[in-house]
Amino acid sequence: MPSYGGRVPAVAVERLTMLRGQGARAVLVCVYGNRAYEDTLVELEDAAKQAGFRVIAAVAAIAEHSIARQFAAGRPDTQDVKQLSDFARQIQRKLSAEDSTEPTIPGNRPYKKTGGAGMVPKPTKECTKCGACAAECPVQAIDKENPKKVDEKACISCMRCISVCPHSARKVNPVMLAAASLMLKKVCSERKDCQLFL
Predict the structure, then answer these.
(1) What are the distances in angstroms from CA 26 to CA 14, 39, 77, 151, 167?
(2) Which one of 10, 64, 99, 165 is most buried, by most CB atoms within 10 A?
(3) With contact defined as beta carbons under 8 Å apart, do 84 and 177 qualify?
(4) Beta partners for 2?
């Protein structure tokens, strides 16, 4: 699950609660861009339990920041892979021992308030209307018939459309991006490790 502004995207919670876990054991994974995951894991835990899963482990993993990509660039790296592989073995030992204790997951209830409007990528003049962005948008915020049209209210600012565009024809407002990068520099520059809860 991605962490956006320290929370789970609302659409992801909606989709998760449609599942029927029927007591299946679950390992929660949230991915964040080296700033903070804040209440993402506890919100994910609550949604998983509501869907009928039993939480036995959780991970807050680092990946390249989705908006300000200079932060955590190249992550997960070999150090992360080693740490996560070791943790996977610990989870396997817990499962083999039939240990179903729940981990203590940090976060707040009630959860932090969701942030304001995110940054919505827009097409540039290089857009050929190929539709790759519309096909890959996880919330269908981009019109399939006319990919230059974006539903700004549906967009979750995941930046997937930017990463999949074969023509580099989608961008966020450069002034907003520069301001966000400046704000994030203080909290994202120092390397953070993945956090593991067993």
Answers:
(1) 18, 18, 25, 33, 39
(2) 165
(3) no
(4) 31
